[in-house]
TrEMBL record, chains A, B:
Protein EC: 1.4.1.16
Oligomeric and partner information: Homodimer.
NCBIfam families: DAP-DH
Residues noted as binding NADP(+) in the record, renumbered to the chain: 11-14, 35-37, 70-73, 93-95, 122-126
CDD domains according to UniProt: meso-DAPDH_N
Biological source species: Dorea formicigenerans
Identification of the protein by name: Meso-diaminopimelate D-dehydrogenase
């Protein structure tokens, strides 16, 4: 059987994760890595793999079954998503929540015109966490759903700290508050504020001679990013940052509690992830959905989808018969 | 909008749970309860609800959108599943694992001939646990999946104890072994025997004058049911059994650990349920899938399905637009 040919668009952490995930899925192969840089300057981990400039993507039409878009949601995907959907099946991890309806509509239009399938907002949140919110609230109709993130590195918050004058480098961890998680698990359906649910831990390398008190104050009072949280700031050396904080762990919990029956019997549904590498795990989810996109397109379907629209069996290498026999 | 009309076939614990679940889903209504008993003798919880003898089910064709089959997997469903699939959309919780392929084939044939949709093996295991095994192994291709059940009442094991001479009544709890769960969560992918994973706790009411030592021995050495487990037996009074053991709690965990990338980064995916009432929760899952069956049939589809084949969005009362906006 011929393999599903995957194109990787953007070769950052997620792109490299997708490349690794392809190696672990025997029904797939890397068709090409697409980059904005000079292709000759990009060294990929797959021997003999093609590296192509993004301007020349259309030259690969017919050689790529699914493009996995590894660009950012802020500026890359809103443009690239619809453009590529017109020419290829695509998977992306678009996560600007407020703009999902608009993005979905734009991608849907392009994908239909191009007769392609595009699955948007794939990963773990949005993605697996969204699915678990959906399943849980469809089963326990009366109840409350809570999502906790962490402990894990937030790139957005780390970047925000790095932009403060006097900061040389920084890593920010989002940490769920144990008491809040326990309260939720108890089924009491508590009302929790932003501050109740998560704390923020910052590890900051200050520039020589910088005013640390000012930096700490600038972090803790930063609107939206930190001011609504209990935030702790630790100043460390560049060496310590490299040694202790160079991994990209993440994870979290989706918990729904609710009741059934006349007597209000309580139930707790919990989904949790504990990830050593956020980008590699995200990439593994993207690749599973790339398989689904390919299969749907082979069946003649087109248009945009989200994880909500994808029958789970489409994600697996196993046949429906195998799945029913082995894991149902 | 007209409501989805649900028929309940069999009015035991699950059937009563389905009746309660219908009350909590505003897009549904109870069409009728079908029973093998004298309908006049069956008192249902829904005022004015029809109770119809199973022999007269076909008289309700056209008045029921989905039949939820609440019979047992051993003898009821193998006959009833295909019979009803020929005439109605159906949902069942068939759980005789070894016979799923044969059962699926029989139901599929009947459902296709009748132009109906039948979703088999719905509940939490098989059901939500199966889905989580599928999602987790599709993402973490290299890894190991573990399922733990409990703490919860096993009807099959309780029944087995009740058949021992000298036993008046009994309840059996399946209990996951904490150390095994912890080992699995650590990502070490341990090889675990049946005995390592679960213990069995039995609460037994002996008949007046019965030999308790003999009963205990009969339980602990019972092939398949108990001999491969560490089993504890507690003799209690009928009053204690009623007071402390009349609920039907259950739950469990599906845990997959695996690795990604060149360096073998570790990940843990865990899904857990903690249920006050096993039959009411199972019924709530059945009803969510009844919605999906109805929608698929409205779209003109037919044949048998499992939870693996059902796009998650079909389970929700919310529209695809709402789902993308609110929980993606």
């Amino acid at each position: 059987m011929s393999k599903i040919r995957i194109g990787i668009v953007g070769y950052g952490n997620i792109g490299r994760g997708v490349e690794q995930a392809i190696k672990r899925n025997e029904d797939m192969e890397l068709a090409a890595v697409f980059t904005r840089r000079d292709p000759a300057s990009v060294k990929v981990a797959t021997e003999g793999a093609k590296v192509v400039h993004m301007d020349d993507m259309l030259s690969m039409k017919g050689d790529v079954d699914v493009m996995v878009l590894c660009g950012g949601s802020a500026t890359d995907l809103p443009v690239m998503g619809p453009e590529l959907a017109a020419n290829f099946n695509t998977i992306d991890s678009f996560d600007t929540h407020a703009k999902i309806p608009e993005y979905f509509a734009n991608v849907d239009k392009a994908a239909k015109e191009g007769n392609n399938i595009s699955i948007i907002s794939v990963g773990w949140d949005p993605g697996m966490f969204s699915l678990n919110r959906l399943y849980a609230e469809s089963i326990l109709v009366q109840g409350s759903t809570y999502t906790f993130w962490g402990k894990g590195v937030s790139q957005g918050h780390s970047d925000a700290i790095r932009r403060i004058p006097g900061v040389k480098n920084a890593i920010q961890y989002t940490v769920p508050v144990d008491e809040a998680v326990d309260q939720v698990r108890s089924g009491s359906e508590p009302k929790l504020t932003t501050r109740d649910k998560h704390t923020r831990e910052c590890y900051v390398v200050a520039q020589e001679g910088a005013n640390k008190a000012e930096i700490e104050n600038a972090i803790k009072t930063m609107p939206n990013y930190f001011d609504e949280y209990n935030t702790t700031v630790h100043f460390i050396s560049e060496e310590e940052l490299k040694r202790d904080h160079s991994k990209m762990p993440h994870g979290g919990f989706v918990i729904r509690t609710g009741e059934t029956g006349e007597e209000g019997n309580k139930h707790v549904i919990e989904y949790s992830l504990k990830l050593d590498s956020n980008p590699e795990f995200t990439a593994s989810v993207l690749i599973a959905y790339a398989r689904a996109a390919y299969r749907l397109n082979q069946k003649g379907e087109n248009g945009a989808r989200s994880v909500f629209d994808i029958a789970p069996a489409l994600l697996s290498m196993k046949t429906p018969e195998q799945l029913r026999k082995e894991i149902l």
